[in-house]
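Is this the right way to post structure tokens for a design question? Let me know if I should format differently. Anyway, here goes:
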């Protein structure tokens, strides 16, 4: 997770040029009204666009997770989210299996990270602890930065490349990934039995006592081997016992997801501005000007639309693959596990690779571990597997809390919001490994320095109100 970027500008979208630009002499109090006042400079259409961005509703329940909204699962997930015991040892590998720089501990030593380590709720749920900081670091090095967990419950698909279609699927993947937590499901089952049994059983039902009493059936460590790897303790187990342990991992993942559904960041100054009316002073004059640019001249709203400021799609916005640990297409030659010639496992291809992995995932919501396999609400994403237009495309992230979630873009290429706005203002970036074809709509915006500053001021108004970050209380109000 992220990670955090402004999306592509679409030339075909209507562009509203401002009548009250800087230096025109109009008062911003007069400029910002609801479009019905005879002396109002902002159009009714502009105000309608701005209003559509404020005050998000509650996220929809997850049909694939029957424990969504279960209070016991939420409290259990809270404890799991902050417990580093579920992480494994340092592997010192990167996302394409290369030897990585040092991770969070010497190789073979416990990394002692929890979900909260790489998703700091005080910083919008992103990783501010890894070094050098443009990508996330756990057992090894990832190829992207950590996307926020705040408001993640609104996402129809998750990860920068969209390779999972639920929060619980993301958690199950990350739990055993050799670059992130590098845990293993047998160890997870033993920890839950030893430390959380009563709370777990209250939500999910009885655990198998042999987990604690029969190490031949349930070894202390193990998970399915990687393709081509040697057999381990997991492969010696009876398939029925494997299912018992995998079910515990899935329940662990669903409990954390139930907790993460409570991690909502709303009631920002911008939300208050929309809720109180256009003449209100909840955001600054610069932010108001930036808001009009956002829905007008800069056309940011084309991709960053709706109350979550995202179209939940993927775009190639010309960000190069660059930075320590970030693989390039040259790093993925023919015949390798990361093969950008045959298009198999090509990490730099972003959503093209992500949709291929999603369509065949054992964790997707139409597969065995889902609690409602009839849920085909993500089928449109499955059907995009093989779409060559997705090469080099990455998700349009939400802009809520974006001022807290530096660095930006999928690989942390930019350190500041101003750099991101300048990227779009010049019609894309320069240098590094360019992947695929940038969107044809990626054109220079013609913003002057003051307009760039105004857009940044608007983005800074999207930070939600301070919260306890425990996620155990009722969700924050949609708008005050």
């Amino acid at each position: 997770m992220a990670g955090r970027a402004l999306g592509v500008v679409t030339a075909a979208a209507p562009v509203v040029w401002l009548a009250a630009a800087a230096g025109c002499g109009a008062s911003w109090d007069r400029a910002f009204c609801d479009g019905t006042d005879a002396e109002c400079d902002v159009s009714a259409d502009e105000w309608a666009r701005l209003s559509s961005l404020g005050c998000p509703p509650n996220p929809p329940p997850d049909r694939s997770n029957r424990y969504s909204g279960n209070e016991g699962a939420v409290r259990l997930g809270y404890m799991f989210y902050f417990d580093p015991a579920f992480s494994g040892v340092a592997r010192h590998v990167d996302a394409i299996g290369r030897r990585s720089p040092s991770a969070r501990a010497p190789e073979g030593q416990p990394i002692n990270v929890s979900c909260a380590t790489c998703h700091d709720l005080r910083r919008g749920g992103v990783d501010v602890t890894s070094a050098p900081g443009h990508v996330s670091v756990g057992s090894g090095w990832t190829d992207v930065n950590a996307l926020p967990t705040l408001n993640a419950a609104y996402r129809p698909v998750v990860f920068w490349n969209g390779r999972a279609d639920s929060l619980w699927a993301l958690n199950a993947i990350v739990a055993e990934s050799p670059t992130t937590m590098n845990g293993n499901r047998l160890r997870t089952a033993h920890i839950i039995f030893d430390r959380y049994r009563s709370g777990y059983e209250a939500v999910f039902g009885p655990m198998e006592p042999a987990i604690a009493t029969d190490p031949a059936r349930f070894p202390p460590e193990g998970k399915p081997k990687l393709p081509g790897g040697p057999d381990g303790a997991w492969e010696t187990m009876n398939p029925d016992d494997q299912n018992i342990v995998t079910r515990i991992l899935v329940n662990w993942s669903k409990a954390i997801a139930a907790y993460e559904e409570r991690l909502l960041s709303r009631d920002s100054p911008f939300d208050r501005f929309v809720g109180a009316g256009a003449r209100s002073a909840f955001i600054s004059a610069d932010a108001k000007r930036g808001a009009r640019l956002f829905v007008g001249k800069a056309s940011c709203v084309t991709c960053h639309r709706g109350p979550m400021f995202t179209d939940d799609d993927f775009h190639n916005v010309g960000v190069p693959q660059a930075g320590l640990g970030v693989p390039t297409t040259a790093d993925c030659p023919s015949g390798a596990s990361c093969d950008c010639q045959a298009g198999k496992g090509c990490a730099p291809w972003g959503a093209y690779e992500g949709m291929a992995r999603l369509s065949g995932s054992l964790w997707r919501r139409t597969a065995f571990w889902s609690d409602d396999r009839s849920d085909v609400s993500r089928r449109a994403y499955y059907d995009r597997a093989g779409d060559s237009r997705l090469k080099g495309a990455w998700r349009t992230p939400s802009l809520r809390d974006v001022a807290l979630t530096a660095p930006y873009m999928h690989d942390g290429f930019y350190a500041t919001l101003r750099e991101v706005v300048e990227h779009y203002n010049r019609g894309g970036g320069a240098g590094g490994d360019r992947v695929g074809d940038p969107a044809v709509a990626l054109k220079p915006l013609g913003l002057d320095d003051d307009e760039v500053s105004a857009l940044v001021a608007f983005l800074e108004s999207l930070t939600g109100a301070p919260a306890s970050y425990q996620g155990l209380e009722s969700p924050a109000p949609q708008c005050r």
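Format looks fine. Someone answered above. Worth noting: The chain has two domains: 28-56+265-350+391-460, 71-260. The longest strand covers residues 314-315.
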